[in-house]
C-alpha cells in the first residue's frame, strides 16, 4: 500500500495523520493544519480536509479523486459543512454500513444536523447553539425543565433567557437554548434514528431530550470515527 498524509482543523486545532494504505502510522497536532502536517516528519501525497470547492448537497460523502476533502454547501437554507465534519460523517457511515438517518455533529461553535441516506448527505440544518451558550454564560449541565419548556414554546426563548439570567441559572439558560434548537430541528429528528457525534458528555442533554421524545439515539466520540474515515479515504489514494 502507498504512503500518504491528511491534515485538517477539527474546530480546536490542526490535525495531521500519516498512513500506509489504511493503517495510521503517525499522528501530530499543531496550531494550524500545515503545522500538524510538518510535525509528522513523513512524506507522501496529501489530502487536505476543507480544500477545494465545496460539493453542493445532496452529495456523496466520499469525494471523487484524492486531491482534497472539500466541505459541503447547501443553497436553501444557506449552510456550509466544513471538511472535518464531512470526515466524521464518512467515519460514521463506514463504522455502521448501510446506516440511514440523521447525524448531529457538535463542534465547539456549531451544531450540524445532517440527513444521511445511501452514503450521501441529503440536506442539513445548523445552529449556533454552542456559541450562544458560551456567549451568554450557560453551563455544560442542562436544566431538563427549561429544555422541555422551550421545546414546547420556542417563541418565548428571549423571555426565558432573560428569566434565567436574572435568577442566575446557567443550567436553565443552556436548557432553553437547547430546547429551542430541538424545536426548530424537529423535522430532522422526528421519526428518524439520530447519531450524536460529540466528545463524551457534550451531547448528554440532547441525547436525553431526544430519548424522552421516543427517538432512537446513539452517541459517538468523534475520535472513534477518524480511523474508519481515513480507511475509506485510503481507497482514493490507491
Structural summary, described in words:
The protein folds into 2 domains: 1-49, no CATH class; 50-142 and 179-238, 2-keto-3-deoxy-galactonokinase, C-terminal domain (Nucleotidyltransferase, domain 5, 2-Layer Sandwich). It has 9 helices and 14 strands. It has helices at 33-39, 83-95, 129-135, 144-152, 157-166, 170-184, 186-189, 204-212, 222-237, and strands at residues 3-9, 14-20, 23-30, 46-49, 55-56, 59-60, 68-69, 72-74, 79-81, 101-106, 111-117, 120-127, 194-197, 217-220. A hairpin with a 2-residue loop joins strand 2 (14-20) and strand 3. The chain is globular and about 60 Å long. The mean pLDDT is 94.
Task: Give the SSE map.
Elements: E1 3-9, E2 14-20, E3 23-30, H1 33-39, E4 46-49, E5 55-56, E6 59-60, E7 68-69, E8 72-74, E9 79-81, H2 83-95, E10 101-106, E11 111-117, E12 120-127, H3 129-135, H4 144-152, H5 157-166, H6 170-184, H7 186-189, E13 194-197, H8 204-212, E14 217-220, H9 222-237
Helix pairs in contact: 2-9, 4-6, 5-6, 6-8
Features:
five-stranded mixed sheet; Nucleotidyltransferase, domain 5; 38% helix; alpha/beta
Short structural summary:
The protein is of the alpha/beta class and about 240 residues long. It is about 40% helix and about 30% strand. It folds into two domains: about 1-50, no CATH class; about 50-140 and about 180-238, Nucleotidyltransferase, domain 5 (2-Layer Sandwich), CATH 3.30.420.
Number of domains as seen in the coordinates = 2
User: Which CATH class of the largest domain is shown?
Assistant: Alpha Beta
Radius of gyration: 19 Å
What do we call the CATH topology of the largest domain? Answer: Nucleotidyltransferase, domain 5
Number of H- or I-type helical stretches = 9
The residue-averaged pLDDT reads: 94
CATH architecture name of the largest domain: 2-Layer Sandwich
Helix/strand order: EEEHEEEEEEHEEEHHHHHEHEH
Shape category: globular
* Main sheet properties: 6 strands, mixed
Order the strands across the largest sheet as they lie in space: 6-12-11-10-13-14
CATH superfamily membership of the largest domain, which one? 2-keto-3-deoxy-galactonokinase, C-terminal domain
